[in-house]
Amino acid sequence: MITITDLRKVYRQKGRDVVALDGVSLSVAKGRIHGIIGHSGAGKSTLVRCLTLLDRPTSGSVAIDGREMADISDRDLLTARRRIGMVFQHANLFDSRTTAANVAYPLELMGTPRAEVKEKVDRLLGIVGLKEFAGAYPAQLSGGQKQRVGIARALAADPDVLLCDEPTSALDPKTTDEILELIKDVRDRLGLTVLIITHEMGVVKQACDSVSLLEAGRIIEHGDLADVVSDQQGRLSHALLPLPNELPHDLPPGTVMELLYSGQHAVEPVISALSRRFNLDVNVLAGSIEDLGGSQFAHLRIQLPEGTDIPAITEYLTSAGVSTTTKEA
């Protein structure tokens, strides 16, 4: 559905070239929710502007459902942009318009007949759970309700893609959960493809099927959640299943192992089975268990006593579906 190929964006500032995007390539299949995560300055805002053609890429391509967006003429630009519904960090509602009128605004711009506008607005407000607030003004709504209005408005033109730019960063944790659940529900109901631009790993954990790590205008890591988590050397794996960076002070001699396992293995008593099989005292130093991309993952750090047969332990754990790395304490 979304294919970005070798996308570059270079700005000319104070007599020198500033590379904001440097060969970004990724693809997102229809009906998936893909997270693009990165810190401030990574290029997220520039990527949004290139995807929506607010900025023309310097080179490379952006295709939606096989249609190259960068080749669209200025005359057809507005129609092309309607294929992408935008949800912003702040809903940016018109204060003088009611909830219903805010959702109706893009339909009015398209010249949609009045009866059709009312029917569609009613349906969209039902989807986002705000039918009873149709006559309310933005000042009468909570932050989460405003964001729901923004989502309904983004859906008004029947887009193929929902592009959410930091949709929850201004919300409290409970409201964040509710908005992410709504985005997933909208995806399921309408068959949309969703891109979520964020700096919050919690958003990726809760809502996304796949993820890309953007840094200095480049995609550093990319893949389905299950795949990136399984790469113990990857930065996304450590961010999605974090463990403390430092080992406990005064740790006795021995071997420290990190274990990563998923699916059915994640709910099995791997540590107790290991302890019984090898007659070992296993010290669990830290652990993290998460549901990611529809699968459960466990990431543990353990210490084994000095003199333990590490190759035999590693072979046993590998046969049990556990990925391992080791270091001396």
UniProtKB/TrEMBL annotation:
* Superkingdom, taxonomy of origin: Bacteria
A GO cellular-component term linked to this record: plasma membrane
Tell me the GO molecular function terms.
Answer: ATP binding; ATP hydrolysis activity
Q: Which InterPro entries has this protein been placed in?
A: AAA+_ATPase, ABC_transporter-like_ATP-bd, ABC_transporter-like_CS, ACT-like_dom_sf, MetN_ABC, MetN_ABC_transporter-like, NIL_domain, P-loop_NTPase
What interactions and quaternary structure are annotated? Homodimer. Forms a membrane-associated complex with FtsX.
Concerning PANTHER family, the annotation shows: AMINO ACID IMPORT ATP-BINDING PROTEIN, METHIONINE IMPORT ATP-BINDING PROTEIN METN
Its protein name is D-methionine transport system ATP-binding protein
